[in-house]
Structure formats: C-alpha cells, structure tokens
Amino acid sequence: MKNTAGVTVVLLACILLWTVVVWGSDYVLGEIIYQASCQRCHGINGDGNGPDATSLTPKPANFNDPKFWQEYDEKKMNEVIRSGKGKMPAFDMPPDEIHVITEYMTWMFKKSK
To answer: 81: closest CA among 70, 92, 66, 96?
Structure first.
C-alpha cells in the first residue's frame, strides 16, 4: 500500500511538471511570434499603438478592450491571422503557431471578468 501512494505522488508530480513545461513553452513561442509578427502594429501591450499603427486607418485592434473579446473567439482570430483583414496582411503560419499566438494574446491581454 505504501508503494502505491509513493508511485501516485511521483506520477502526479510528473503530470504537473509536464503541464508547466508545455504551457511555458507555448507561452514563450506565442510571445516570440507576437513580437515578430504583431507587435509593430498592435503594440507591446496589445493596445493597438505599435510604432507602425500611426500610419494605419483604421487603427489596429486593441486587445485590451473587452469589446474585442466579445466579438472574437479563437476560431475568428485564427481566420483573421490566416486571411488578413483590412490593412492587416495574411500570415502564412502553421495551425500550431496560430494556436499559440492566440493563446498568448488571451493570456496577456484578455481581462478577467
């Protein structure tokens, strides 16, 4: 019985560690992609005030605005990233990269209700 409890604790610790490693790597990859592909227009803080935003009409989306999150879900965001919208160009990214960028945006910019 004692061995079973020990094995269970080790197994749970491994699952927790794996979750932290996977979540952490997705977060870092999402941040890298955001910085390379989105930040110049949407800004470091996701507020739509990046260095290239001043020349764009309409202004890039503000990911800090609760209205943005009311109108967009992950599927819709994926489509905009793949196809572009208005002045925003389409980005040729594999689905897993699009997923981590939308997860990063959600983690960083969506405010809790």
So the answer is: 92
Q: Taking the model in full, what pTM does it have?
A: 0.75
Cβ(63)–Cβ(105) below 8 Å: yes
* Tally of structural domains, the chain: 1
Structural domain span for residue 37 = 2-109
Cβ-contact 43, 106 below 8 angstroms: no
pLDDT tens per residue, range 57-104: 999 999 999 999 999 888 999 999 999 999 999 999 999 999 999 999
Nearest to 81 by CA among 64, 106, 98: 98
65 in helix, strand or coil? coil
CATH code (residue 12): 1.10.760.10
The tokens describing 72, both together, are 């967009």
